[in-house]
Each structure stands twice: as C-alpha cells, then as structure tokens.
C-alpha cells in the first residue's frame, strides 16, 4: 500500500513515471544493503525476534509518513529504502522457520500454497489502496498500512521463547558468502537468479514508465491502472498456484517451473514494452509477470533449500539476496535511464526495440545454470 500511495504522490507532483519507477530501484537497493548485516543478524538473534523488530520499525516509519502534509520524493524514497532494508531479512527469516517446521517431501507443495496465499492478499492490497487513495487520500492509506505492519508482529509473539542453536555461536559476517563461493550448486543457482532478474527487474521498473505515458498526466488514471496491474500480477501468481496444485506433489514438476520462469519473465517484459503502442497490453503483461514470478520463486525456494546446508540456510539466503538485489538495482537503473532516453529519442523503432530487449533477453540463459540441478533434485527424491 505504501508503495502505491507514494507512487501516486510522485506522479501527481511530477506528471511523469521517473520517480514512480525509481521506487523499484530503491526497493532492490534496500534489500541488497541488508545483506551486509543480515547474515550476522540471523546468526545472532532468534527467529521470532527478527520477525517482530523489522515490521515494527517499518510500521513506525509509515505512521510518520502519514503524519506529514507533503512528502517530497527524496523523503519518500529514503523511507522506502529503510523499509525494504528492514524487510530484506523477513524472507530468509521466514524460510529458516519453515525449513525447521516443514518436512522436505512437502516443501514444494507447501511453498506453492503459502506463496499463493500471500499473492491473494497482494491482489486485495492494491485495490484497497486505490480505493482508499481515491476516497480518503494518501495519508489514510499510509495509516492503514502502518497498522498492518503492527498486526504482522503479533503471530511471532507466540514463539518468543524459541531460541536458535546458532545464537550462542561466534558470528561470522561472511558465512553466507563463503557458502556461495564454496558450494557449486548454490553458486549455479545464484547465477540463474541473476539472469532471470534481468527480465523481472526490468519489467517491474518499466511498468510505471509505460503507465505514465498512457495516463497523460491524469493521476487517477495512473493510480487505477497501476493498482489494477499490480492486482493482475498477484492474480497470475495465484492462478498459477491453483493450476499447478495437482502437479506440486510430483517432484519432477520442478523442471518445467525452471523453464517457465525464464520464458515467462522475458515474454512479460516484451508485452509490457508493447504497452507503449497499445496501453491495454500492460494488463496481459502484468498477468504473465505474475505467472512467471510464481515459477521463479517456487523453483528457487525449493532448489535453494535442497542444496544449502540447513545450518547455514539463513545467512546463505541473505548473501544471495544481497548479490541478486544489488544486481537487480543496477538492472533497474539501466532500464529506468535507457527507456527515459529511448522514449524521448529519435532512434528508429527497430533499433529502439532491439536495444530495450537486450538485457531482459539474458533471462533465457538462466536454465543453463539451474536445469541440471532440478534434474538432480528429481533423481534424488525419486529414488528416496
């Protein structure tokens, strides 16, 4: 909700998509910077402690933003950076909790269910945010989002007595990075993530730029289309989860997920790019982006946990996220400035299209690094 609210504010003030698209780049940078400290934090503090502190501080920041009359882009982007800096540890923290609680055999179906459930609420959030912004204003939307952050702390209170075995060990700040360097499987999965993010980071950054062009300065149209597009991304994710329900119990399903992740990421970018010619293409592209995100996330989570020693899972995820998110930040900046130039240049259409597609097309190389690991994963669990 906060992202949509600030994106609408930025567009209302500037009437262009540059600052709205900068939100994606800031998000990637915030998550990447957490990696410098995240591995040590996960080794030092218990799972519930980390689960409470991040959302609590994020909620305080959002409450502060809701109390300000005018939010300058610099303040808004700085706040987003801090929020995602804190949120950058939530994903690996949740994964190490589920890694302990869920049996290896059921992880593919479990992650499919939980990620689909999360995407369901992601459908509602942009719609509700758009309605709240239209009827009650941005400040009210921010206040409600602050409340949801506080509510998300509550479930962890039941686990406060939980203590990690790692808490008493000496903290190794570079532990996750050492695992990535020494473990060839983890290293290959990281290369695959980097290549896939050439398409996904580009697509997420491109969307507000295309929407801004199509809105012609109308804030309501921009906010509606952005909220609807975000909902379609989540809908694509959910429907992918539902469609794959009967296949998730079969470990061999991981192989098509790896292939679809790369193909869907590139095609979604291509279709979003086509929205410059006909704006309604963005809805098709957004839906396909959600489908691809499901394949990308579920295959990555399943293979990542399968090939990473459970005792160093949290720090390794943090290290991977640091590298991948910082890389995505650079890709996002390239997309942002490239398309700002392309949209205002006199380049021939063919050259502009080819230039714009060059980086996202690298995602098609990702299965080269991860497909063999998926096959080995299937072989290992088929014989067990």
TL;DR of this structure?
The protein is an all-alpha fold and 384 residues long. The protein is built from 15 helices and no strands.
- Percent range for β-strand residues: under 5%
Cα(first) to Cα(last) distance is 44 Å
* Rg, Cα atoms, Å: 20 Å
Q: Which architecture would the CATH scheme give at its second level? A: Up-down Bundle
Gross morphology is: globular
Mean pLDDT: 83
Structural class: mainly alpha
Helix-strand pattern:
HHHHHHHHHHHHHHH
Q: Sheet bearing the most strands, described?
A: none
Q: Descriptors for this entry?
A:
384 residues, globular, 0% strand, mainly alpha, Growth Hormone, Chain: A
Give structural notes:
The chain is an all-alpha fold. The chain is 79% helix and 0% strand. The chain is built from 15 helices and no strands. The chain has helices spanning 2-14, 18-44, 47-66, 73-87, 90-101, 107-136, 138-153, 175-182, 184-215, 219-243, 254-274, 281-307, 313-344, 349-357, 367-382. The relative contact order is 0.16. The chain has a single domain (2-157, 172-382), classed as MFS general substrate transporter like domains (Growth Hormone, Chain: A), CATH 1.20.1250.20. Mean pLDDT is 83; it is low at 164-168.
